[in-house]
Design brief:
Length: about 425
């Protein structure tokens, strides 16, 4: 349950015995001490019990939470329970992965740079053999380029993933590998990549993928992923909403990460990170900020997402591990839904506070009237039922959620998008 729901439950546990004691006092004190009529003050005690029944107070929060969950689902944001409705509105720091979050998650091989006398086709065949069984976005880009170039691909044997670095395997009786320039350095081949080539690739914001075997680096692939067209505007809106610190966490190299961050307007960059480094970065943010969110899409992001106060997964391109770990999932991978989510959370809390205020104010008024013998049973019943209906109606305003701005959907409800997509494909 949301923290505010837990507060209401605790309040009701204290409120109820106090009201019972007050009703007994109204029934007994005036007749015993002031000579009042027993039937008159007993009637007023019953009026007090009716009006102070916490129906409206108790129902106001869960109805608001359910309406908020429904509205968010219509907007393409799946929130895994009421406990995570309140958190986005209090976000002070936001960490996000680069690939698939800030970028489109659809990289392509922009250039092939063979070295040591290897042809471009041979280099692509070597890289594609390692990626043949992988579903990673970079793997799909390499396999697509190999197919486009008409390169025959045979899957490598004994392939294994080296987390945060790359892949290893065997082909034609020799050990082969593929990964970041840091992976090449760890294998003792860092100097084999020409410095001018490295600078040109990283300076352009592209990702360098080294390909080699047991003898050294055989070539370099330059992979480029487009930055989401609305990413800069979304980051600016997050800052305007009070998210003080936005951090990029990526396993990519420092220069590429900083080039992307500078274009988008991100505050901090932490690059060359392994999965355990991302966890450490999130723990540092949690220690210095009140509410930290993590947005990710890959298996490498899942451990860090689990350490944040709450996590958001890019639902369509995200891995199963990331979606399972996350508390909130974006069904359409539209980053514009993050500032919408923060605004929606704050609007939900505003309505909940309004409902609590209306309930308590009405009850306080009738308690005062009853204490002076000015309330009637019919008035108490009408007020109790009326306030209950009022808080429900106020909560249902959340179903008319704000439209999402600057997203690819243009704010159109996700259900309508899916229906139109099905019709377009003849379903």
């Amino acid at each position: 349950r949301a923290p505010v729901e837990q507060w209401v439950a605790k309040f009701a546990r204290i409120y109820t015995p106090i009201v019972m004691a007050l009703a007994i006092a109204i029934a007994l004190v005036p007749p015993l001490l002031l000579g009042g009529a027993w039937d008159y003050w007993f009637y007023n005690a019953l009026v007090l019990l009716v009006i102070t029944c916490p129906c409206a107070l108790v129902i106001s929060t869960p109805v608001s939470i359910v309406a908020a969950l429904t509205a968010s689902a219509r907007a393409g944001v799946l929130i895994k329970g009421g406990a995570y409705v309140e958190a986005p509105g209090r976000t002070t720091a936001l960490a996000m992965d680069k690939t698939g979050t800030i970028t489109m998650g659809e990289p392509e091989v922009a250039a092939v740079h063979p070295l040591v006398g290897v042809s471009a086709r041979d280099l692509m065949a070597l890289a594609a053999s390692l990626e043949a069984r992988s579903s990673h976005p970079l793997a799909r880009a390499i396999l697509s380029r190999a197919e486009a170039d008409g390169v025959s691909v045979s899957a490598a044997e004994d392939t294994r993933t080296v987390p945060g670095r790359g892949l290893e395997g065997r082909a034609d009786g020799r050990a082969i590998w593929l990964g970041s320039d840091r992976f090449a350095e760890e294998k003792g081949f860092g100097n084999a990549i020409p410095a001018d080539l490295r600078d040109r690739i990283e300076g352009a914001g592209s990702t360098l993928v080294a390909v080699g075997d047991e003898t050294g680096v055989t070539g370099v692939l330059e992979l480029r992923d487009r930055i989401r067209p609305d990413a800069k505007g979304i980051v600016a809106r997050l800052h305007a909403q009070g998210v003080k610190t936005i951090v990029m966490l990526t396993g990519d190299n420092e220069r590429t990460a900083r080039a992307v961050a500078a274009e988008v307007g991100i505050d901090e960059v932490r690059a060359d990170l392994l999965p355990e480094d991302k966890v450490t970065a999130i723990e540092e943010l949690v220690a210095t900020h009140d509410m930290v969110a993590m947005i990710g899409d890959g298996v490498n992001d899942a451990p860090a997402m689990a350490r944040a106060h709450y996590a958001i997964a890019m639902g369509a391109v995200g891995s199963d591990a990331a979606i399972e770990t996350a508390d909130i999932a974006l069904m359409t991978d539209d980053l514009a839904r993050v500032p919408w989510l923060i605004a929606h959370s704050r609007r939900t809390m505003t309505i909940i506070h309004q409902n609590i205020g209306i309930s308590l104010a009405t009850k306080a008024l009738f308690v005062g009237l009853t204490a002076f013998g000015m309330a009637s049973m019919w008035g108490a019943i009408a007020a109790d039922v009326g306030v209950s209906l009022l808080v429900v109606a106020n909560a249902l305003r959340l179903l008319n959620g704000h439209r999402i701005k600057d997203g690819p959907s243009g704010g159109e409800p996700v259900g309508e998008q899916m229906a139109k997509g099905a019709l377009a494909h003849g379903h």
